[in-house]
C-alpha cells in the first residue's frame, strides 16, 4: 500500500546532497507525520471554511527548469539591500553579495546555511510539523528558500527581499515547497519582504520561521500576489523573545485558493507584536486567513488588525485566535477584523476568538462587516468626482489604514499600486435617482 | 439661473414637496425659511441629486438644462454646490487630495485647464484664510475629527475653491457660534456677485444679518406660501412661523 504522500508526489521525503543528519531525520519524521495526518479536511475545525480537495487530487510535480524568458522582474527594482529570487522553488538569482560584506549580515539560500549554528539551533523548532499537515509536507519536501541571520546589535538599513515566482500550466502542474529562516539577534533590526508572484497553475507551499531575539526589531511583509489560477498555502511562524518588537504584514491580492497562516508566540517578557493583514479579492478567489497569537510570557502587547475587501463572488475568511497562557499576566491584546463587501455575492466568515487562562489581562476583540458608505459616496459625487472614482477612493481609503503604515517607501508605494490595479472598474449599481 | 416649477418630490414614497415653484435669477441671493418638516432639506437634496430623493412631477431647469436628468457629479461639474447640513466624515480620504480631484473634474468639464499640485495649493491657501481654517486641516481626512463648526467652515472652504455658479446652503448656520457664523457669511458674501446665485436654507434669521438676501421665501408644508424682501425675515424672527401657518390655513 502506498502512503498518502507517495500517491501525490514522486519523491518523499526528498534529500539534498550533503544535508546534515539532523535535517535528514527531521524530513523523515515530517513525512511520517504527513502520512498520518493526511490532507486537512473541512471536518477539522481549523479547516472548516476551506476544502483542499481540488488541490489534493492533482498530481503535482516539482520542476527546477528555468524558463528561457526573463520577464520576471523584481517589483522593487534595485531598492532591496539584498535579494534572493526563486523560481518554482529553485534559486534563480542571488543578489546578496554586497550585503554579506557587512560582518553582521548573512543572506543566502537556506540549502547553503544548513551547517550554520543558527540553522542548527532554530530550524524546524517553531513551525509545528507534528500537528500541521502542510507544514509537515513542507518540512519533508523543501528544496530551498531564504536564510537571513542578523548578528546581535546590527541594524540593517533598508530591506531584504525574498522573491518567489511560480510558473505552471494545466498540463504541467508544478509544486514548490519553500522554506525560510530569519534569525534576528539580540538588539538587531531588520526588515524582510517576501513576495509571491507567478503565472499559470501551480502550487506554492511555503513556511517561514522568524526568530526575534531579545530586544530585536523585526518588520516582516508578505505580499501574496500569486496568479489567479495558483494555490498558495503559507505559514509564517514568529518566535519572540524578551522585549522584542515584531510587525507582521500580510497583503493578499492574488491566488485562486489561498491559506495564510500567521502564528506568533510571545515567549519573553515585554515583547510586543503588531500583526496586520489586508486581503483584496474578486472573481472566485478564496482566501483563508488563520492566525494564532500565543501570549506565553507576562507584560506582552499584541495588536492585530485584518481588513478584507471582497467583490464579485470572492470568499474570505478571518479566523483569529488569541491565547493568553496562565503565566501571561498583564497581557494587553486587541484583535480587530473589518470587512468591506462590494457585491451581494461576496462572502466573508469572520471568527475572532480569545482564550484567556488568567484574569489579570486587558483583551478585546471585534469584527465588522459593511458596505460602502452611501453618504460618503454621495458627498464625493456632490463635489464633482465621478461615481467610479468616488467608489475607488472609498475602497482605497478603507485599505489605507494598513498601507499608509508601511514604513519602507518603495514597499508602501508598490502596495498602493497593487491595490489600485485590483480596483473594480465597474460603476456602482445605483446612479442618481432624483427622477 | 434656476427655475423650479410645480415640483413634487419626496423620499421612500412619502411626498414632501407639494408643488414648489421658485425662480432664482443670476446674481441673486434667496433665503428659504420655514419650520421643521416644511421640506427645506428635501429641496436642497433634490437639487443636489442625493440618491433616494425622488422628484415625481414638475421641472427644475438650471441654465437651460434639465437638472433632474443629471447625476449628482454632473450637477456639481455644471456649477451647483450644496453645503451640506451634516457633512460626512470620510476616514482615509485626504482633504487636499479630495478637493484637488473635485476641482479638476469641475475644471475639466468646464473646458478649463486642470491645476497642478502647486497651483492648487496656492489657491487652497488663499481660500483657507477666508474661512480661517488652519492649514493642518488640509492633510487630515475629510471632516474626520472636525468639530461641528469646523465641518461647516470646511463646506464653505470647499465652496470657495470650487467657485460654483449656484451655491445652496442647507442650514449651514445651525449650531454655529456668532464668530463662526460671521466667517461663513463672509465666505458666502465673497462668492456672491453678479455671476453667482445663492440659495440659503435656514430655520433662523441670524445668518441673514450678515448675509443679506434679495428675496425671502417661507416654505410650509412643501410649498412656498409667502415671499418678500429681507424685512420678511425680521418679521419671522419676531413673530415666529405660527402667523404664517394661520394665514395659510385661513386662505384655504
What can you tell me about this protein's structure?
With about 425 residues, chain A is an alpha/beta fold. Chain A is built from nine helices and 19 strands. In chain A, β1 (about 80-85) and β2 form a beta hairpin. Chain A is globular and about 65 Å long. The model of chain A is unreliable at about 5-10 and about 425-435 (pLDDT under 50). Chain B is an alpha/beta fold and about 250 residues long. Chain B has one domain: 3-Layer(aba) Sandwich (Rossmann fold), CATH 3.40.50.300. Chain B has helices spanning about 40-50, 70-75, 95-110, 115-130, 150-160, 180-190, 205-210, 230-240, 240-250, and strands spanning about 1-10, 15-25, 30-35, 55-60, 65, 80-85, 90-95, 140, 165-170, 195-200, 215-220, 225-230. In chain B, α5 packs parallel to α6. Chain B starts with a strand and ends with a helix. The mean pLDDT of chain B is about 90. Chains A and B meet through α7 and α8 of A and β4, α2, β7, α3 and β8 of B.
CATH class of chain B: Alpha Beta
Sheet with most strands: strand arrangement of chain A: 2-1-5-7-9-11-13-15-17-19
Cα shape of chain B: globular
What share of residues are in beta strands of chain B? Answer: 25-35%
As for the number of domains of chain B, it is 1
**Portion of residues in helices of chain A?**
10-25%
- Which oligomeric state applies? heterodimer
Radius of gyration of chain B: 18 Å
Amino acid at each position: 500500500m502506498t502512503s498518502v504522500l507517495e500517491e501525490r508526489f514522486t519523491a518523499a521525503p526528498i534529500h539534498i546532497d550533503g544535508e546534515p543528519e539532523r535535517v535528514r531525520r527531521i524530513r523523515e519524521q515530517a513525512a511520517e507525520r504527513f502520512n498520518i495526518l493526511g490532507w486537512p479536511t473541512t471536518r477539522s475545525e481549523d479547516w472548516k471554511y476551506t476544502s483542499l480537495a481540488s488541490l489534493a487530487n492533482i498530481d503535482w510535480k516539482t520542476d527546477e527548469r528555468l524558463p528561457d524568458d526573463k520577464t520576471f522582474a523584481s517589483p522593487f527594482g534595485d531598492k532591496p539591500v539584498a535579494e534572493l529570487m526563486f523560481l518554482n522553488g529553485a534559486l534563480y538569482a542571488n543578489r546578496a553579495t554586497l550585503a554579506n560584506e557587512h560582518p553582521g549580515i548573512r543572506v543566502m539560500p537556506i540549502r547553503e546555511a544548513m551547517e550554520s549554528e543558527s540553522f542548527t539551533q532554530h530550524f524546524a523548532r517553531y513551525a509545528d510539523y507534528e500537528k500541521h499537515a502542510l507544514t509537515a509536507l513542507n518540512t519533508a519536501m523543501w528544496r530551498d528558500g531564504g536564510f537571513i541571520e542578523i548578528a546581535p546589535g546590527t541594524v540593517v538599513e533598508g530591506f531584504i527581499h525574498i522573491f518567489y515566482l511560480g510558473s505552471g500550466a494545466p498540463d504541467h502542474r508544478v509544486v514548490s515547497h519553500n522554506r525560510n529562516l530569519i534569525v534576528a539577534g539580540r538588539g538587531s533590526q531588520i526588515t524582510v519582504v517576501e513576495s509571491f508572484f507567478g503565472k499559470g497553475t501551480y502550487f506554492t507551499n511555503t513556511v517561514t520561521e522568524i526568530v526575534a531575539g531579545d530586544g530585536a526589531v523585526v518588520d516582516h511583509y508578505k505580499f501574496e500576489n500569486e496568479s489567479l489560477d495558483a494555490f498558495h498555502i503559507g505559514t509564517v511562524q514568529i518566535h519572540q523573545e524578551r522585549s522584542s518588537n515584531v510587525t507582521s504584514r500580510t497583503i493578499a491580492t492574488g491566488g485562486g485558493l489561498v491559506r495564510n497562516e500567521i502564528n506568533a508566540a510571545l515567549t519573553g517578557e515585554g515583547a510586543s507584536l503588531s500583526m496586520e493583514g489586508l486581503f483584496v479579492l474578486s472573481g472566485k478567489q478564496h482566501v483563508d486567513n488563520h492566525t494564532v497569537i500565543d501570549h506565553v510570557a507576562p507584560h506582552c502587547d499584541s495588536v492585530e488588525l485584518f481588513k478584507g475587501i471582497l467583490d464579485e463572488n470572492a470568499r474570505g475568511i478571518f479566523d483569529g485566535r488569541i491565547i493568553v497562557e496562565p503565566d501571561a499576566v498583564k497581557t494587553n491584546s486587541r484583535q480587530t477584523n473589518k470587512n468591506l463587501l462590494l457585491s451581494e455575492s461576496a462572502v466573508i466568515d469572520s471568527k475572532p476568538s480569545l482564550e484567556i487562562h488568567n484574569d489579570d489581562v486587558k483583551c478585546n476583540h471585534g469584527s465588522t462587516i459593511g458596505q460602502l458608505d452611501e453618504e460618503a459616496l454621495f458627498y464625493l459625487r456632490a463635489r464633482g468626482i465621478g461615481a467610479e472614482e468616488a467608489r475607488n477612493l472609498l475602497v482605497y481609503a478603507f485599505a489605507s489604514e494598513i498601507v499608509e503604515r508601511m514604513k519602507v517607501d518603495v514597499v508602501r508605494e508598490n502596495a498602493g499600486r497593487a491595490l489600485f490595479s485590483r480596483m473594480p472598474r465597474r460603476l456602482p449599481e445605483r446612479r442618481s435617482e432624483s427622477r | 439661473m434656476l427655475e423650479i416649477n410645480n415640483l413634487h418630490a419626496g423620499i421612500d414614497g412619502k411626498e414632501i414637496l407639494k408643488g414648489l415653484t421658485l425662480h432664482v435669477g443670476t446674481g441673486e441671493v434667496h433665503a428659504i425659511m420655514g419650520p421643521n418638516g416644511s421640506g427645506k432639506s428635501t429641496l436642497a437634496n433634490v437639487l443636489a441629486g442625493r440618491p433616494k430623493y425622488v422628484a415625481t412631477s414638475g421641472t427644475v431647469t438650471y441654465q437651460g438644462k434639465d437638472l433632474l436628468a443629471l447625476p449628482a457629479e454632473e450637477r456639481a461639474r455644471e456649477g451647483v454646490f450644496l453645503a451640506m447640513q451634516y457633512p460626512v466624515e470620510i476616514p482615509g480620504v485626504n482633504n487636499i487630495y479630495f478637493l484637488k480631484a473635485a476641482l479638476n473634474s469641475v475644471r475639466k468639464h468646464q473646458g478649463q485647464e486642470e491645476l497642478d499640485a502647486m497651483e492648487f495649493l496656492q489657491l487652497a491657501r488663499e481660500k483657507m484664510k477666508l474661512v480661517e481654517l488652519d492649514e493642518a486641516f488640509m492633510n487630515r481626512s475629510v471632516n474626520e475629527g472636525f468639530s461641528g463648526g469646523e465641518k461647516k467652515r470646511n463646506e464653505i472652504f470647499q465652496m470657495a475653491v470650487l467657485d460654483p455658479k449656484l451655491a445652496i446652503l442647507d442650514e449651514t448656520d445651525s449650531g454655529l457660534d456668532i464668530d463662526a457664523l460671521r466667517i461663513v457669511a463672509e465666505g458666502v458674501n465673497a462668492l456672491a456677485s453678479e455671476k453667482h446665485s445663492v440659495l440659503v436654507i435656514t430655520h433662523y434669521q441670524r445668518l441673514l444679518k450678515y448675509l443679506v438676501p434679495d428675496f425671502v421665501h417661507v416654505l410650509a408644508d412643501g410649498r412656498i406660501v409667502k415671499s418678500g424682501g429681507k424685512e420678511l425675515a425680521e418679521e419671522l424672527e419676531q413673530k415666529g412661523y405660527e402667523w404664517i401657518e394661520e394665514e395659510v390655513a385661513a386662505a384655504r
